[in-house]
Amino acid sequence: MYDVIVVGTGFGGMTASALLAKKGYRTLSIEAASELGGCAGKFERQSFRFQAGATLGMGFEEGGVFSQLFHELDISPPPVHLLDTIMDVHFSERTIRYYQQKERWFDEIARQFPKDSAAIVRFFEEMFSLADAMLSFVYKRPIVPPKTIKQLFQAMQKADRKLISATPFLFQSIAKRLQHYGIRDETFIAFLNGQLVDSVQTTIERCPALLGAVALSIFHRGAFYVEGGLANVVHALAERYKQLGGEQRMREKVVSIRKQRHWLVTTNRKQTYEAKHVVFNGSLHSIFSILDDSIKRIFSIREEKEKKRPAWGAFTIYLGIDDNLPSDRLYHQFIVDQTKPMSEGNQFLLSASAPFDRQMAPVGKRSITISTHTEPLHWWDRHAYDEQKKMLTEQILQRVNKTFPLTNIHVQLVGTPVTFSRFTHRAFGKVGGYIPNGVFSLLSTYSPQTNVEGLWLCGDTVFPGAGSLGCALSGWIVADGISASK
Predict the structure, then answer these.
(1) 3-class secondary structure for 165-205?
(2) In the chain, pLDDT over 70 holds for what percent of residues?
(3) Collapsing DSSP states into helix, strand and coil, what is residue 407?
(4) Which long-range contacts (CB under 8 A, 24 or more apart) does 176-179 make?
(5) d(CA 55, CA 468)
(6) pLDDT value at position 244?
(7) Which parts of 47-160 are beta strand (E)?
């Protein structure tokens, strides 16, 4: 019998697995796919490596989440490179260079928005201050929402003066803060909407101020290019996990989680494993298909409710091309029409491999990932699928070619929510966590600890949320919680 079974090998699952193995727990990690990482995984075609989803590294600065995590595990992270320019944001008439260093970013604001620059700088200074308050709390890894009086007391102890000073902003939106500073510039608002949709899945009107503050400040703490892609971070965690005695099963899909005296986890290979704790690292949209009915009846999260909570899918184009891209600017965001929604190809991200990164592409060539938000459910209409995929691909590549002519395309592949569902086993291909629906969204956060004893959750649909940092932190919180429950 195992102490812990971890289902899924994304950032949350591998973080929890490695930390628990280091603490001496007998741990089994189970992955349905042939590749680690889930939405942060990788795949290779014709000597090109492609990142399935997430591409830009964060948390490797001193005191950052991954710096702390790798120190805790007594290993070094993969080679990373601090970016001077986070990304170029391309509009139809101009390009905004989003600098990592705060002072250079403020100079760019003055150049791009001279009329409103003073107000915009004050707005960003406020965002940085609110983010400091939030992250000083989140990085202490509280269980939120707390499940016991003890956890409530521990969370209160971790809430310092910075967080208390931020409470007046708890039920304000980013739009409200912009209104406070009198900022109405349409291009700047479109810039913010593009950044927020990419990081927290929504725009200024529905984005809580505290959540938006973290999203708008996190790159300024450190934005990094990770050699070989973010999947190398997951692989480093997995390698350390095995060194610490952890067991791993690949290409083995969990089909049932039930509980008798202990937890029983059954896979498609008709293997049943027993454990004291089960950690589900995946989207909550997907857990109900494998939970036994006896567990679902007492589970505090209801399946009917989760089906109605909105979430995005991803439409992704993978290209292997000859090198004709800027070598010093690897990340680009395109906003085609700033008056339209930031999805379905109107807003998309282009990530290019570094010219020196031989793990990603051969000499003289580059690997590219292009991704846009899309409504996932309409991709399941088989009759419209092929035409829809063709039209969106042409629309996106046409816009890219206006800025970077893409010559000699050696590989071109397209991923849709159907693709993500097939390879990451996420229900309907929903990715990136839930879409915030307003200023009260923070109150609907799910805890990594469930109401069912011994059942834990990590990943983008539980506290502290989406992204590699949020997922890794949720896995760390689970490892802390299991250790404390001894």
Answers:
(1) HHHHHCCCEHHHHHHHCCCCCHHHHHHHHHHHHHHHCCCCC
(2) 100
(3) coil
(4) 176/209, 176/439, 177/123, 177/126, 177/127, 177/209, 178/123, 178/204
(5) 10
(6) 98
(7) 48-51, 57-58, 80-82, 85-90, 95-99
Within 8 A by CB and 6+ apart from 414, the residues are 315, 316, 317, 318, 389, 393
Q: Which two tokens stand for residue 239?
A: 């390698």
Q: Enumerate residues 6+ apart whose C-beta is below 8 A from 329.
A: 85, 87, 88
Burial class (CB in 10 A: 0-12, 13-18, 19+), 445: middle
**Cβ-proximal residues to 381 (8 Å cutoff; 6+ apart), any chain:** none
Q: Please tell me the number of Cα atoms within 13 Å of 296 on its side-chain side.
A: 16
pLDDT above 90 (res 486): no
Q: SS3 of 430, please?
A: coil
Angle among Cα 1, 243, 450 to the nearest 5 degrees reads 45
The token duo for 483 is 């250790």
CA distance 322 to 317: 16
Quick one: pLDDT band at residue 157, thresholds 50, 70, 90? confident
Confidence (pLDDT) at 407: 81
> What gap in Å lies between CA 10 and CA 32, rounded to an integer?
11
Name the token pair of 428: 């309907």
Query: Quick one: pLDDT at residue 162?
Result: 84
Cα gap 296→294, rounded to integer Å: 6
Assess contact for 146 and 447: CB atoms under 8 A.
yes
Please name the amino acid found at residue 435: I
Per-residue pLDDT band for 83 (boundaries 50, 70, 90) equals: very high
Amino acid at site 394 = E
**What stretch of H or E contains 303?**
helix 303-308
Per-residue tokens: 344: 């379905």
Spatial neighbors of 187 by CB under 8 A, at least 6 apart, are: 91, 94, 112, 113, 338
Instruction: Tokens for 32, please give them.
Output: 């349905």
Distances in Å between the Cα of 376 and the Cα atoms of 112, 342, 379, 455 are 35, 15, 6, 28
Rounded to 5 degrees, what are φ and ψ at 320?
A: -115, 115
Query: Whole-prediction pTM value?
Result: 0.96
Tokens of 142: 């509280």
- Do residues 374 and 313 make contact, with C-beta atoms less than 8 angstroms apart? yes
- Arithmetic mean of pLDDT, 234-259: 97
Alpha-carbon torsion (218, 219, 220, 222), positive or negative: positive
The answer to whether residues 12 and 24 touch, using CB atoms and an 8 Å cutoff, is no
Beta bridge partners of 81: 225
Going by C-alpha positions, the residue among 337, 320, 342 that lies closest to residue 409 is 320
Looking at residue 44, its amino acid is E
Query: Residues 303-313: what's their mean pLDDT?
Result: 90
